[in-house]
C-alpha cells in the first residue's frame, strides 16, 4: 500500500494491507507506513467484521505469522482490534526475566504452529488470560492460575464479538484456549481410563489441540524440548491405540463364563479363563465367529474338544462355621 493510497482513500480494510504483506510475504512495514497508519488506527473499527476475519486470518495463516502480529502492534492496530493480546506486549511471565515475555512467546508459538485458522488463532490468543491472573509469590515465583479458562471467556467477550469468526471456527478456538494446557500435563502414569476420558472430552478438537501443544513448546533447552514433544507424541499414540482397541468387536458375549460353568458342569477357577482365551484366539484367527450366542461357543468347545488338556481345578470347599 502506497502513502498516496492512504491519503486518498484511508478505509478500514486498506489499513491491514501492510499486515497482510508482512504475514504472507515477510515485508515489514516501513517507518512511514507505521507513522501514517498509526494516526488512523482507530479507523480500523470501520472495517466490516467479516472482512476483518478474512484479512487477519490470511495474515496469520501466511508463512510469517509472527511478522503479521508484530506489524499489527507497530501500526497501532492490535490495540484497536485485539486489546487483550496487545496487553501481553512487554508483559513478563517471570519477575525480572525479559526472555519470558508473553508477547515474544506468543509470536514463537504462532510461527511454530500449523497454518490452519483454528490453530493459528488459538496460538495467537492462548495466553491472553495471563495478564489478569498473574500473581507474585514469595521467592520470586509467579502463577497464572485459571488463565486458560479466563482466556476462553475473554475471547468470547472480546475478539469473538468484534471479528466475524465462522461459528465452528470460533467455537474451536475457544475450546483450544481452554484446553491448551492439558496435553502438557500428560505423563506416563496416566491410566488407560484417564487417556480415554481426555480423548472423549476434547473430541473432534484433539488433532488441533495436540498441534497447538507442540507449537507451545518454546524452551531453548534441547533436552526439555525433546522430552515435551516426546510426551505429546506418546499421548497421541496411546489415544490411537486405545481407539483402535475400542473399535474391535468383542468376540465373546458377556457372562460367557457363567454359561460355560452351567452347561459343562465346571466349577469356577482358572480353567474358565483358559477356555475363554482359546475361544478368543480362534475368533481372532477367523476359525470361529465373534458375537454369537453362548450356545454356539459351548458347542464349539465340545466339538473341538477344547477341554481335553485343560486342568480342571475343583472349587474350594467352604469352611463350616
Automatic annotation (TrEMBL):
Limits of the HD domain: 118-187
Q: Which Gene3D superfamilies does the record match to this protein?
A: cca-adding enzyme, domain 2 (1.10.3090.10)
Which superkingdom does the taxonomy of this entry point to? Bacteria
A Pfam entry, by short name: HD
InterPro entries attached to this UniProt entry = HD/PDEase_dom (IPR003607), HD_domain (IPR006674), HDIG_dom (IPR006675), tRNA_CCA-adding_enzyme (IPR050124)
Which GO molecular function, any one, fits this protein according to its record?
Answer: nucleotide binding
Which keywords does the record carry? Nucleotide-binding, Transferase
NCBIfam families from the UniProt entry: HDIG
Name recorded for this polypeptide: Multifunctional tRNA nucleotidyl transferase/2'3'-cyclic phosphodiesterase/2'nucleotidase/phosphatase
Whose protein is this, by species?
A: Enhygromyxa salina
Amino acid at each position: 500500500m502506497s502513502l498516496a493510497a492512504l491519503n486518498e482513500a484511508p478505509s478500514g480494510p486498506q489499513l491491514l494491507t501492510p499486515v497482510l504483506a508482512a504475514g504472507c510475504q515477510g515485508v515489514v512495514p516501513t517507518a512511514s507506513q507505521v507513522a501514517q497508519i498509526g494516526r488512523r488506527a482507530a479507523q480500523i473499527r470501520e472495517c466490516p467484521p467479516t472482512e476483518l476475519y478474512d484479512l487477519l486470518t490470511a495474515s496469520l495463516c501466511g508463512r510469517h505469522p509472527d511478522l503479521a502480529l508484530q506489524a499489527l502492534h507497530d501500526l497501532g492496530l492490535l490495540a484497536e482490534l485485539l486489546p487483550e493480546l496487545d496487553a501481553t506486549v512487554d508483559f513478563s511471565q517471570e519477575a525480572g526475566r525479559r526472555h519470558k515475555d508473553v508477547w515474544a512467546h506468543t509470536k514463537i508459538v504462532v510461527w511454530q504452529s500449523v497454518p490452519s485458522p483454528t490453530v493459528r488463532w488459538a496460538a495467537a490468543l492462548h495466553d491472553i488470560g495471563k495478564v489478569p491472573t498473574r500473581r507474585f509469590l514469595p521467592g520470586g515465583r509467579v502463577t497464572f492460575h485459571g488463565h486458560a479458562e479466563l482466556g476462553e471467556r475473554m475471547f468470547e467477550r472480546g475478539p469473538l464479538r468484534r471479528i466475524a469468526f465462522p461459528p465452528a471456527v470460533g467455537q474451536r478456538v475457544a475450546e483450544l484456549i481452554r484446553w491448551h494446557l492439558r496435553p502438557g500435563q500428560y505423563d506416563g502414569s496416566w491410566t488407560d481410563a484417564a487417556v480415554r476420558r481426555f480423548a472423549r472430552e476434547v473430541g473432534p478438537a484433539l488433532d488441533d489441540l495436540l498441534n497447538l501443544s507442540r507449537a507451545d513448546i518454546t524452551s531453548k533447552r534441547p533436552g526439555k524440548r525433546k522430552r515435551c514433544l516426546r510426551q505429546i507424541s506418546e499421548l497421541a499414540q496411546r489415544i490411537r491405540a486405545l481407539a483402535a482397541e475400542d473399535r474391535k468387536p468383542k468376540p465373546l458375549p458377556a457372562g460367557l463364563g457363567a454359561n460355560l460353568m452351567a452347561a459343562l458342569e465346571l466349577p469356577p477357577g482358572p480353567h474358565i479363563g483358559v477356555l475363554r482365551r482359546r475361544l478368543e484366539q480362534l475368533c481372532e484367527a477367523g476359525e470361529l465367529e465373534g458375537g454369537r450366542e453362548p450356545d454356539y461357543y459351548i458347542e464349539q468347545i465340545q466339538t473341538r474338544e477344547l477341554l481335553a488338556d485343560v486342568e480342571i481345578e475343583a472349587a474350594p470347599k467352604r469352611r463350616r462355621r
